[in-house]
């Protein structure tokens, strides 16, 4: 994750064909494309963006293609609903990131400090899909979520 320090600058607030081998992509390409996606997400919108990177290998056993990172975009402001209610737009943004960031398997979008969120990721078959939501009541104490599944409240 230390290779992605250049992405930390994105944590500042803003207003207004798979699998790909790691050697085929550069860190600069990932940072550049992530910045472009970020600009597109907030462009001409009254929204504040909080960005962070996490290592999913600590919580997930079956993430695909040695891609241990997740990018998280949280929004706060009047335009949050417009962004979050655009699943095609979020899928395109995720696809651009995953194609250009060889260590990223998952991208999440959410409303800051709420449980409203969408997770999109690279599946084992190479497709990019929204994670399937399960309510806590659908799970048993022995249930274990698989890659591509998440709990939604």
Biggest β-sheet strands, sense, barrel: 5 strands, mixed
Kindly state the mean pLDDT as a whole number? 82
Helix share of residues?
10-25%
- Widest sheet, order of strands: 1-2-3-4-5
In short:
A hairpin with a 5-residue loop joins strand 3 and strand 4. The chain has helices at 27-42, 80-84, 87-100; strands at residues 48-55, 69-76, 104-111, 117-122, 128-130, 132-134, 149-151. The chain is 23% helix and 25% strand.
Tell me what the structure shows:
- This protein has 153 residues and is an alpha/beta fold.
- Helix content is 23%, strand content 25%.
- The protein contains three helices and seven strands.
- The strands form two sheets. It has a five-stranded mixed sheet with strand order 1-2-3-4-5.
- α1 packs antiparallel against α3.
- The radius of gyration is 15 Å and the shape is globular.
